[in-house]
Amino acid sequence: MSTCRTPLDALTSRNPASWLTIFGPGAIIASLTIGSGELIFSSRGGSIFGYQLLSLFLLVCVFKWVLVFTTARHMILTGAHPIQRWMDLPGPRGWLPMAFLLLAIVSFPIWVSFHSGTLGTLASGLLHPQTSGTGTHLLWGMVILLAVIGLTLTGGYKRLEKLQLLFVLLMLLAVTVSLFLVHPEWVDLLAGFANVAPPVYPEWVAEHPDIAKRPVWVELSTYVGVIGGSGYDYLAYVTYLRDKQWGLASNEQPTPVPVDVHDEAARVRMRQWCRAPLIDCTLSFAIVLLFSAVFVACGTEILGPAHKVPDGNNLLNLQAEFVEATSQWLRPFYFVGAFLAMFGTLYGTIEVAPAVMREIQNAFPRSATGVDPAKTRRITILWVGIGGMLVLVGNLGWQHFTGADKPTALIAILTPANLFTGVLACGIICILSCWADRCHLKRSFKTPLPLILLNLVAAVLFIALGIKAYWDHSGWTAFLILACTIAAAWFVAGVINSCLAKRGSNG
């Protein structure tokens, strides 16, 4: 095997094994979705819909892959993050980044609380199985969340990448073993990727009123929102390219003249750099699809016939059934793997927030914030962590005073956040990626037409599905909230621009 001293050496190597050294930011995306998308929602979808769900997951992975690759490609060729490009949209400068910021303030604590609560469920079930339904899992979730906050405050990108790579490799081994232990119907599994019929609830779903009352569109849209990651994950992914220093991504500001189109050597070099996100993104979503297929198979073969549905609170016992029927001794190893997967998701989610905030801060003039980036990172981590802690405390109080066996609010409040960030936001980013490509890339570097068309198709489907799911979930209420958020972002951005203009005139 040849030794590649730099990423560019690996990209130009004829040894495909060398290309694996590029894999890094994609591992973070994969790890982010494994703990929530595959561990919970893929097995949940398999138990309810069976293998017919796999075609949806394949489609989602393809569309999200093209979204991530297109935005990453633009970043490498220009050094411009999508959020920086959004500053040029019509209206008050920065209104769309501000809208994403306002939605992030609410969404990230919800995700953190959900992942912490699920980790607490795993820990409580292993250590205190006799205390199920007493709120012990929420207390453990709080303890784990505090530990992850401390880890995040003392870490950075390099630690994040190394840990997520480790988690992905360990879980990849675990799920591969699980797949062969389950003995799926291989023909049905493969046929599921080609299914064109819309999934429908089986009759036994009536045994689960909380699922039966949810329209199928809403249930499926939740899967679309979590499988493969969400809009904020992808914005963070592009930020991580700065840390990797691929192409022109190392520049904190867009390069006015990215590449001299008359310099053939420079053009060749930048096209070589574009292979980096191509390899990284492709490996990431291939892993995501593999994990999805494994957990759909486990849910279909083991949970579905027993009419059991994982929802985060009963995760431990139901996930145990994936292995204990065949090999009881694998149970503790499986739970260690599940814990690591969820831990990686929680850690990655908390790290995504400051990465997105970093780009929003970079997009506005330093005088608009006056806050040191390192301080912004600490504030963001504490906001996400404390917000998630408050959600857990609220759910603990809800469980205590109502006497309920489980805090269903963790799943309930997750749905609206996922519908925007994982569905609607993806459609918006697809459209804006095409717009940025058209406005800022030289002809010789423009995204190939098939990828542009795939982006537009993805945008239509994501937006249509998001609107449909939002309507079925909460009707006009959801759209009123989004409209108020955009109006607030429009107003705040206008105030910021006005203040900056006054400072400029006075200076």
Concise synopsis of the structure shown:
This protein is an all-alpha fold and 507 residues long.
Structural notes for this entry:
- This protein has 507 residues and is mainly alpha-helical.
- The protein has a single domain (8-506), classed as Amino acid/polyamine transporter I, CATH 1.20.1740.10.
- Helices cover 75% and strands 0% of the residues.
- It has 22 helices and no strands.
- It has helices at 7-12, 16-19, 25-49, 54-78, 82-86, 95-127, 136-153, 157-182, 186-192, 209-212, 216-226, 231-244, 264-273, 275-303, 315-324, 331-363, 366-369, 373-402, 409-412, 414-440, 449-474, 476-506.
- α8 packs parallel to α14 (275-303).
- It is globular, with a radius of gyration of 23 Å.
- The mean pLDDT is 81.
Task: Sum up the structure in keywords.
single chain; 507 residues; mainly alpha; 75% helix; 0% strand
Tally of structural domains: 1
Q: In CATH, what is the homologous superfamily?
A: Amino acid/polyamine transporter I
Largest sheet: none
What structural class results from the helix and strand content?
A: mainly alpha
Question: Alpha-carbon distance between the termini?
Answer: 60 Å
Helix content: over 70%
Can you identify the CATH class? Mainly Alpha
Query: In terms of per-residue confidence, which ranges show pLDDT below 50 for 5 or more consecutive residues?
Result: none
> What is the number of beta strands?
0
- Please give the CATH architecture: Up-down Bundle
Assess the beta-strand content as a share of residues. under 5%
Radius of gyration: 23 Å
